[in-house]
Amino acid sequence: MYILARIINTLFTILNYFIIARVVISWVRPNPSDQRWRKLIRLVFDVTEPIVGPIRQLIPTGSIGIDFSPLIALFALSVIRRFVIRLLIF
Questions:
Q1: What is the mean pLDDT of residues 68-90?
Q2: Which residues, 6 or more positions from 9, have their beta carbon under 8 angstroms from its beta carbon?
Q3: Over the Cα atoms of the chain, what is R_g?
Q4: Which of 3, 23, 51, 83 is 20 to 30 A from 60, comparing alpha carbons?
Q5: What pLDDT does residue 32 have?
Q6: What are phi and psi of 62, to 5 degrees?
Q7: Nearest to 19 by CA among 49, 40, 42
């Protein structure tokens, strides 16, 4: 069970990095027509959209213009990670 817990922990860590990369991409705004960035941007958005998209629909940005969905997703993934790993270890 310990190995499974480590694998799940690693997957959650990678997913967190993808969400952080999505935030950085939204700040930097690389040229999507550039072939060097297109595949990376597409990969990051394809991996994170199933998580961030539903949160964004529940909590719209409104007039503020700030998208808190990645922050909420990171928090939710942290809670889920702890819960799953505790179930596996104990």
A1: 93
A2: 81, 85
A3: 15
A4: 83
A5: 73
A6: 65, -145
A7: 49
